[in-house]
Every structure is written in C-alpha cells, then in structure tokens.
Amino acid sequence: MSAIPLSPFEKKTRDHALVISIGFLIFLPLGTLTARYLRTFTNRWFWPHAVVNLLISGPLIFAGWALGNQANDFEEGFSPRTNHKSLGTTIMILYIIQFILGTIIHYVKIPIPLTGHRPPQNYIHAILGLVILALSTSQIHQGIYTEWPEATGNVHPVPQSAKHSWLALIIVFWALYAIGLGFLPRQYKQETAAIKANEQGDQIPMS
C-alpha cells in the first residue's frame, strides 16, 4: 500500500502537520527556553525571546494553521466541527493573546506593591505560555494518532520516527525547562540588584 501516491488531501495534511509541528514543538519551546535561561544572566533577554517566539515561530504556526484549514477544502477532509480543529483554533487564539500580553508586559511597567516588583501579568504570561505548549503537544498527538488515520483511512500510516520525534522533543523541552527553574534564585537575586541600582526605584528594569 505504501506504493500508492499520497492524495492531494494527504499532501496538504502532511504539510500542515510538518509545518505546525516545527513551530509548536521546536521553535516555540526554543523561545521559551531562551527566556528561561538568558534572563538568569542578562537583562537583555527580551528581544532574543521575542524574535524566536514571534518572528520565527509565528509565521510557521500561522502557515501550519492555514494549511490545516485548506485541507478541509478537499471532499475527503475533516468535518469543520472536529475536536482537532476546534482545539487548534483555541490554541491560535491563546497564542495571539499571549503575544499581546507579552507586548504589554514589556512596554507597560506597572509595579504592584503587594507583589513586589513583579506584577501578576508576568506570572500569567509564563503560565499561559506553558499551557499553550501543553495543549499544542496534545493537539499534535491527536493529529498523529487519531486525525490522520481516521481522515485518510491510514493508507499511509504515520511513520514511527515521527511518533518517536514527538515524544523526544517533549521530553527534552520539559527536562531543560525543569533544569532552568533551578536558576530562579540567581534570576531573582539579579533582578533585586538591578532594582536597587536603578535611579528610579519604582520602575521595573526587567520584563
């Protein structure tokens, strides 16, 4: 059966899966790790983080989402009401909210006395980022193990290498992120020192 060429729908769905997986499983986690590690050593971490998460991940994610929608134009495509598509749209909305929130945090500094120099939106931004990563990995898992077989009839099964890569990338990211959390004391110490050195002590020098 592997000698049968891919149908137009399969090609479009394959491209959707490949592009959006690169965005969500490689570059978006890379942008998260960039912030997690760089901010423990320098206060110039924001732009590397923004470039990876917006200028690199963003186009891939939006292109992958568009390819997924284009796949529905084929008669053999998904029903517009599938959970996979609904969750995909939800993740895209959360990604846009995350981008807006990150921009506000960087450019609008609002010190909150009850929380020290780190306002609540900073924590919301971090938590939302991890939620997006968790949802996207689940979404890709569903695409690999459920959506592809059901929509295509599994004439061309997803190769085991793709499934192994999905698992490996998740393990690597969460392991590196957990290790990065060990640098939090250094990060907080550095931020406290920066605040004391700032001539206007009520401003937040780091996002």
Write the layout of secondary structure elements.
Layout: H1 8-38, H2 46-71, H3 83-107, H4 120-152, H5 160-181, H6 184-197
Helix pairs in contact: 1-2, 1-4, 1-5, 2-3, 3-4, 4-5
What does this structure look like?
The chain has 207 residues and is an all-alpha fold. It has one domain: Four Helix Bundle (Hemerythrin (Met), subunit A) (Up-down Bundle). Helices cover 73% and strands 0% of the residues. It has six helices and no strands. The N and C termini lie far apart (54 Å). The C terminus is likely disordered.
Descriptive terms for the model:
207 residues, single chain, mainly alpha
Task: Write a brief structural summary.
The chain has helices spanning 8-38, 46-71, 83-107, 120-152, 160-181, 184-197. By secondary structure, the protein is mainly alpha-helical.
CATH class: Mainly Alpha
Overall tally of structural domains: 1
- Element-by-element helix/strand order: HHHHHH
- Write down how many β-strands occur, each being a DSSP E stretch of 2 or more residues: 0
Query: What percentage of residues falls in helices of 4 or more residues?
Result: over 70%
Output the number of helix runs: 6
Radius of gyration: 20 Å
Strand portion, in percent?
Answer: under 5%
Instruction: Please state the structural category.
Output: mainly alpha
Main sheet properties: none
Report the average pLDDT across residues. Answer: 86
CATH architecture, please?
Up-down Bundle
State the end-to-end distance. Answer: 54 Å
pLDDT < 50 stretches: 202-207
The name CATH uses for the topology is Four Helix Bundle (Hemerythrin (Met), subunit A)
